[in-house]
Specification:
This is MALR1 protein. This protein is mainly β. It has strands spanning about 5, 25-30, 50-55, 60-65, 80-85, 90-100, 105-110, 120-125, 130-140, 150-155. The chain has a single domain (about 5-155), classed as Sandwich (Jelly Rolls).
């Protein structure tokens, strides 16, 4: 619905991810950047922007952290929908939940080594009785040409 907050990375404005352009390791780019795949966003648009791991380090991982969200309840379920690209050799994308009272991040979803280099979509549902943050964590183990993890169109439901 229209009440979902959407981060499509076309601009630097995103309520749920206020400083995504300051997260080291992630870079906001499009398919024409000359940095290898993906060569378009998840809609096939070569000039539209998405986030991908910067490929300058030998092995890289990077975290992307949301705002603090309020506790969920039956009426306010937090659903996060996102498009992702994980390269087939060594890419991993994890989504973690960090509750207010805990130091540790609980892994709630993970994908690695997708068979085909293509955009996929996933929706995760979060239940938390306390305030929490959500962390997207991307990693590539090798820096072979074209190895990357990318994220596009992260959408947060009203309950987030």
């Amino acid at each position: 619905g229209s009440s979902w907050d959407k981060c499509d990375f076309e601009t630097n404005l995103c309520k749920a991810l206020p400083e995504f352009n300051l997260h080291p390791g992630w870079i906001r780019r499009n398919g024409q950047s000359g940095m290898g795949p993906p060569y378009s966003d998840h809609n096939g648009n070569e000039s539209a922007y998405f986030l991908s791991l910067s490929s300058e380090m030998q092995s890289s991982s990077a975290a992307l952290r949301t705002n603090v969200f309020l506790p969920t309840d039956e009426e306010h379920i937090c659903q996060i929908r996102f498009h992702y690209w994980v390269s087939q050799m060594s890419g991993t994308l994890m989504v973690g939940l960090q509750k207010h009272s805990e130091d540790t991040v609980t892994n709630i979803w993970q994908v690695s080594g997708e068979l085909r280099n293509q955009w996929n979509v996933n929706t995760i549902t979060i239940n938390s009785t306390e305030k929490y943050e959500v962390i997207f964590w991307g990693m590539v183990e090798t820096q072979r040409q074209g190895e990357t993890v990318a994220i596009d169109d992260i959408t947060f439901s009203e309950g987030c």
